[in-house]
Each structure stands twice: as C-alpha cells, then as structure tokens.
Amino acid sequence: MNTLEAIAKRSSCRAYKAEQISDDQLEKILKAGNAAPVGMAKYNTIKISVIQNRELINKIDKEGMSFFAKQGIDMEHPLYNAPTFILFSGSDGPMSLCNISCVIENMIIEAAELGLGSCYIMGNVAAVKGNAEIEKAVGMPEGFELCAGLILGYPAEEPQSRELVTDKIPTEYFK
User: Fold this and answer.
1) Are 94 and 156 in contact (CB under 8 A)?
2) For the chain, does the N or the C end have fewer beta carbons within 10 angstroms?
3) pTM, whole model, 2 decimals?
C-alpha cells in the first residue's frame, strides 16, 4: 500500500473488536509518530501515554459520557470500546496541539497501513483535563497539559477506501 492508498483507507473508526493490537503494531505506530514534523524539533515538549489497561480506559470513557451528557449529548462509550487509548500532553502552549496533530496524523496513516482502525479524540480529553487522579495515572509530567487523544484497535467492520478529491477545501491559486 502506498501513502495515498493508506490515506484513502483511513477513516474515523467508531466500532472496535475487543482484541488488543500487537506490540509490533504499536511500535510501528509510535515510530510513525516520532517521525512527525515538530516545530523547532521540540520533541521533549510532547508526552505520549499509551493506555491499554481496560479499567483506566473505562474510567476515562465514563468521564467522557458525563462530559457529553452535561452538554445535552447522549453518547454511550465515546471511546467506542477501543482497546488502546493514547493520550498526548504538551508543555509548549498552543504549539503543543499543532505539533501533536502532526504526530497523530502520522500515527493514523500508519494504523491504516496496518489494517487498524483509529479515531482522533478530543471530547474525552476535555473531560479529564485537569483531573489530577487521571493525569497522575497516565504519568503526565508537571508543566504539561492534556491536548488530544487517539484510539486504536481492530475495526469491527473493514473500512472502505474512498476516492481522494481536491474540492472539499476551498483552494485559490495565485500563480
């Protein structure tokens, strides 16, 4: 599969099998993340916490359900029962989310290449941001704040490739 094929196969997966991803798959995904462009090569301003502990994932999922309910959104299991949840924290203010987004994009494309499902997560991150118990449980260093999340696993249904187009985002050319 080439890069564009992996991008075409990538989709936001919202239903997962219970089976955990392999250590080899996780390592490849983490390598892809570590290859992402980060402003001024400040990789030390990003912390990645890989959570595969079902009890901790369920606790974060429950916080997400409560968070969404307060906004009038009935969302059962906003982590979609994914077996792996990766939390990203940063210490570089607004640049952290920019850099982390690049890291996540690389990881999502590698996940598609490996036949895994993924979904970029923000709601559950907002739900637990500032929760000292969870921040401690995921090893977030002092001076860092939670920024984004990524769920991974085997998709319950095989994702379909889609046609890549250039008309979704308005584009102007200045030649």
Assistant:
1) no
2) C
3) 0.94
